[in-house]
Every structure is written in C-alpha cells, then in structure tokens.
C-alpha cells in the first residue's frame, strides 16, 4: 500500500538517498529544504517525488508548507540540519555574542527545526505511522553545540514517542557515524581525519547513505511497530576519536 512520506533536507546526502528509496517503493514523497536547486534535481528523476522549498527553523515557512502537503502524512523523516559551525568563517571573533549566535545556530538547525516540523504536522500524522529523527554519533561525544543539539534531539524524541504512541505512531532516532558521499563536511575533511574516523570503526570502512536508508526503512516498516523512543546507532561500531 502506497504511503505519503515527508523528508526534510531531502535534496542531498542522506535525505536524498532516503527519499529515493521510498519513491522506488511506490510511495508518494515530498522533499523539502532551503535550496531549490538540489530539490528540483531529485524531483526531476521520479514522478513520485515532489519538491517544496522550506526553512524548517521558520514557523511562518512551516505554515506555508502545510498548504502544500497532503492531508495525511504516514512517515515523517526529520533529516534537515548539519553542523553550522562548518559554515562559520574562520577567525571570527570569539566574544560572548558570537558564541551565543553560533550555539543557537546549531540548536535551530538540528533540534528546533525538528521540533517545529513535528508540531506543525502533529494532527496530520496518520495513525500507525512513523517519525524518524536523524541524529548523530556526535550526541555521545565532546562535539560542541552540534553534539549538544543532537543529544537534545534524542532526549526530546522521548516526548514525541510518549505523545504520539497512543495513536500507534512510533518515534525513533537513527544516529549515524561518519557517512561518506554527503556534503556534511563541506569538502573540508582532511585525509588524516577521514582515516581516523574509519579506523575508529569495527567494520573498517566509512558508512554510506544506503546504510542509513536501511535503518530508516526498517523503523518505518510494519516490522518495527513496537519499537519507539529508541536510538539506533549506525556507525560501524565506532569508538570516540577524540
């Protein structure tokens, strides 16, 4: 039976891979993000994918998004986010005001965006559906405001699971380790750092987007209807590299 799936941040990397998977299953997929170019590129490749530009940190933008969405959403994947520190200019002033802006940017991108999106869609989520948050191994490491935001996401997800559980809706977190072939590091990952991240795994390889797709697909499937409020680590058994 075809489902309706919303993937935030669906234009690149993990989000794109997830969207392409559900579309290939015959589901109707809506992808969102702030950049229209990548979204349109994905949508052009499948009749099952529709692109809508949206900044999920903006309540007004989410209000406009609702007008573009179907009445019922079966699967919500909160994937939009990323480490906003990687977008900051090097050598920026380390004063308290700058620190506050940088810290809030990661909270907005990774925690508040998911919270606002889930709240906005709460009444449209279908009974027996699924919410999947994309977390990070950074939540369990010393990773600054990005790690704090992802740790907060995992904690907040417990509330989502409790609130939506009576309607048969599950809410879980998929927590990736290092995933290659994404824009996460903005092409700034040194060979030495990449080698360290791979060597920290038990599997001896970097993750790829399809690894995350498999976990998301499972949590959104009929096989996972009694799994909720959980964090599924998909990191190849990685240890801390710090």
Automatic annotation (TrEMBL):
Coiled coil: none annotated. Residues 3-140 form the Ketoreductase domain. InterPro entries: KR_dom (IPR057326), NAD(P)-bd_dom_sf (IPR036291), SDR_fam (IPR002347). Belongs to the short-chain dehydrogenases/reductases (SDR) family. One of its GO terms (biological process) is fatty acid elongation. GO terms for molecular function: oxidoreductase activity, acting on the CH-OH group of donors, NAD or NADP as acceptor. This is 3-oxoacyl-ACP reductase. It holds the Pfam family adh_short_C2. CDD domains: SDR_c.
